[in-house]
Give the backbone structure.
Amino acid sequence: MKRIITFLILASWLTSSVALAVCDKNIAESTPSSRFVLKGGEAYDQQTQLTWKRCSVGTTWTSDAGCIGKVKLLGLDKAKQLAQALGGGWRVPTIQELYSIVEQRCFNPTINTRVFPAVKNFGEGTPYWSDTRVEEIPSLIYFIDFIDGAIDGHSKGFPLAVRLVRSEP
């Protein structure tokens, strides 16, 4: 009985703290690692010519451990303010830009975890803000849930995760 309880606790800890993506090896990668030039905490996407922060807002890149810390959930206005305060052209991505890093062949999470480590379920998915309004309902802003790659809309005050991007000249 003690072994079963220990196993259940370990399994619960692993699924909540480690990205255990399930990927279909029969489908070609949509975001192969070779598409990105990694430089510390930044990933340059050679296909889209965008540079991404490898870590979610609230976490910090370290060369030995990847992204450490706790993901900060923010309303969209706060996320934009934070990006502007960072300077260097960092901003909240459009929905098209954010969707460009969805890994089509994987689930839980639907992102290349070698390029973007430490993407975890926050309890109700892994939703990340875009800066694109839902055209049919302008009070809503699109987001992507990196658990399954689903796109949906939410009011801009709702706290979601943020991955910053910048355009390269």
Remarks:
- DSSP finds three helices and eleven strands in the chain.
